[in-house]
Each structure stands twice: as structure tokens, then as C-alpha cells.
Design goal:
Arc Repressor Mutant, subunit A; WH_DNA-bd_sf; DNA-binding transcriptional ArsR family regulator; transcription
Amino acid sequence: MTSPAAGRDLPHPDREEIRLEAVLHALSDPMRLRIVCELAAEGAELSCSHFDLPVTKSTTTHHFRVLRESGVVRQVYRGTAKMNGLRRDDLDDLFPGLLDSLLAAAGRQHLRLGDRP
């Protein structure tokens, strides 16, 4: 018997399918970088509704889709909530130091410009 959640599984690239250029593209957008910074700072899964982004709901959905399809985040349904977790282990194994360097650079930029990472 198929569980009700099975029809709601979201497609994710396998670790071996994650490409550097897709990750860099996903992180090149300020809103997506902000999502990743929040996920990294929290260190836990967060629901989509947790994020207070200054964009429409459809644009927020697009940003999460880009992050998921690039392999940066993993999205799973927990009840009616779509939870997002940073794929840190996969990214660190494939591209050692990349995520930490990008997060540190985003933090320095935030201090320098006073904008939100």
C-alpha cells in the first residue's frame, strides 16, 4: 500500500548528480543565499513559512525549487508543512570548503554593507 505522502515526494538530484555550476547559480541570488544562510545558522530543518522574504509567495516557491533542484536543500513534507534542510554533508563531500567559504563571505558582506545575507 502506498502512503499518502508518497505522492508528495519531491524530486532531488542524487549526490553524484549535483553540479558545481548549478550550486553556484542557486547561491548567486540574494534571496536564495539568504535562505541558505538562515538554514545554516539554524542547523535544522525549517518550514517554508518560517522565511520572511520580501517577495511574493510564488517567487518564494520558485527560489526553493531552484535550491532543491540544484541539490543545495532537501525538501520533505511533514504533515502539511514543507520542511527544508541544507544538504551540507553532500555539498561538503563534493565541494570541500565551498559552503563554509560562501557563508563566511556572505557574513562579511552583511557587516560591510549592512544588508541582509
